[in-house]
Amino acid sequence: MKTLLKIVAATLICLVLVLLVLRVTGLEPRGLRPGLWLKGNLVTTPVTDWSFAEKAPFITIQMRTWYLLPHSVNVSCLYYNGHLYISSVGYRPGVKYRWNDYLIRDPHVRIKIGNQLYDRTAVLVTDPAEKAGVLGEKVRRSINANPTNPELTPSMLSSPNIKKNVFRISDN
Description:
The protein is an alpha+beta fold. The chain has one domain: Pnp Oxidase, Chain A, CATH 2.30.110.10. The chain contains four helices and eight strands; from the N terminus they run H-E-E-E-E-E-H-E-E-H-H-E. Strands 1, 2, 3, 4, 5, 6, 7 and 8 form an eight-stranded mixed β-sheet that branches. The longest helix is centred in the first third of the chain and has 24 residues. The termini are far apart. 22% of the residues are buried.
């Protein structure tokens, strides 16, 4: 019995040490691989104009999970009608976008743009007109960016089999 307790204690200590190392290093997402904590300079002042966010190739969002470790992913953003939006269109078969579920469960996020961190709230857009406007603009920009092979097309948005979520970023 003492041997079992020593093994369990050693395992827990190792797990805590691994989590501490990951907390210090951050383990940010790379490409499509999700990460954990984000590192950078925390900005606490309100942001009235998010248009600068579109200059970055992507932004990174860190959200809270039910299992208490943060989950962070790289996403594209859209500055539209004076607001910053992030969206996901599940057009890749077999891929589950868990980060959508995490945001719906707990909308508190940390956003990283460049080396700046912003603590904000990601509000699920439920207004059909606002959602259609954001997704329509995303399609338009996708087609303008690559007319021969856009990442997003109108047929993807009209498909009932494709899950589409839009989140508006707002101050806490």
